[in-house]
TrEMBL record:
Database matches in SUPFAM superfamilies: MetI-like
Taxonomic source organism: Actinomadura violacea
Family, per entry: Belongs to the binding-protein-dependent transport system permease family.
Compartments reported by the entry: Cell membrane
Keyword Chloroplast: no
Protein name per UniProt: Carbohydrate ABC transporter permease
Entry keyword Transcription regulation: no
Signal peptide: none
Membrane topology of this protein: Multi-pass membrane protein
Length: 301
């Protein structure tokens, strides 16, 4: 037994050595993955960090080429942020952006949901050509469309008003929202509606009570996408609105803070940070909904 115990102990030690080796490799691999993720996050966050630091820098610190752009080489000052709120109608621009974005989101949902449902559920020969046509509209550059849309805005007497953007922006948001919702609706089995209709619901009732809750992640995606697209749009907002009290953030901020060859750079960066943080927070708040929408099964088996 003594002779046999030696190889057994050596085998046990070898197994333990291999276990520790693979455990270390696993830890090293996880550390590498997390390290790469942290590095990528830092690289992506650097522009935001630079904007945040620049917003509170003094002019002498900002324009000194020997200064580190990511640190305060001179004491920080809130004067440029204060200038943004007190000497420009920045809050008016923000309020206009929220009003336009909210109404465009409502219009987009009212138009995109029925269109997506009809294309995804109703077997008609015109479904595929119409879906392709809707998507082709989204591919047309705004720089080509705004000339004809300007005639529409003038005919409706909506120039220099928020309603001009509220009427025009759905032409951008609806096509891509329809295609996005089609993907979500097609992921929901038809059995869900059929069972609801067997239980006595109409097609509309089956859609509202059975299908709509299952495509809620897609609706959230459309809401966030439509609002961010509306808030960042520039060409239409610049072409249709020239009155400062009716401007949105995308056009009002550069108009007020870029005056000829004079750039109020710190205030521009402050406006960037202030408008980007709520949108980023909103997106991250519903991030789980996006993932759930693409991975969750619609029917339990």
């Amino acid at each position: 037994m003594t002779a046999a115990a030696g190889p057994a102990r050596r085998g046990a030690r070898e197994v333990e050595r291999l276990r520790r080796h693979y455990a270390l490799r696993h830890v090293a691999a996880r550390c590498g993955v997390y390290g790469a993720a942290v590095l990528a996050a830092l690289v992506c966050a650097l522009p935001f960090l630079w904007s945040l630091v620049s917003a509170f820098k003094q002019n002498q610190d900002l324009y000194d080429p020997d200064s580190n752009p990511f640190f305060f080489n001179k004491p920080a000052t809130p004067d440029h942020v204060t200038f943004l709120f007190t000497d420009t109608p920045f809050l008016t621009f923000v309020a206009n952006t929220l009003i336009v974005g909210a109404l465009v989101v409502v219009i987009t949902l009212l138009l995109a949901l029925p269109a997506a449902y009809s294309l995804a559920r109703l077997d008609r020969p015109w479904g595929t050509p119409m879906g392709i046509g809707i998507f082709m509209v989204y591919l047309v550059p705004p720089s080509l469309l705004f000339l004809s849309l300007t005639r529409v805005v003038v005919w409706l007497h909506l120039e220099d008003s928020l309603w001009s953007m509220i009427v025009v922006y759905p032409t951008i948001t609806v096509p891509v929202s329809v295609w996005l919702l089609i993907g979500f609706l097609r992921a929901v089995p038809k059995d869900v509606e059929e069972q609801a209709m067997v239980d006595g619901y109409s097609r509309l009732g089956a859609f509202l009570r059975a299908v709509l809750p299952l495509v809620f992640p897609g609706i959230v995606a459309v809401v966030v996408f439509s609002f961010t697209l509306t808030a960042s749009e520039f060409v239409y907002a610049l072409a249709f609105v020239s009155a400062s009290p009716q401007m949105v953030v995308s056009t009002g901020v550069p108009t007020q803070l870029v005056r000829g060859d004079v750039f109020f750079w710190q205030s521009l960066q402050a406006a960037t940070v202030i408008t980007a943080v709520p949108i980023a927070f909103l997106f991250n708040l519903f991030l789980d909904r996006f993932v759930t929408g693409f991975t969750m099964g619609a029917v339990k088996t």
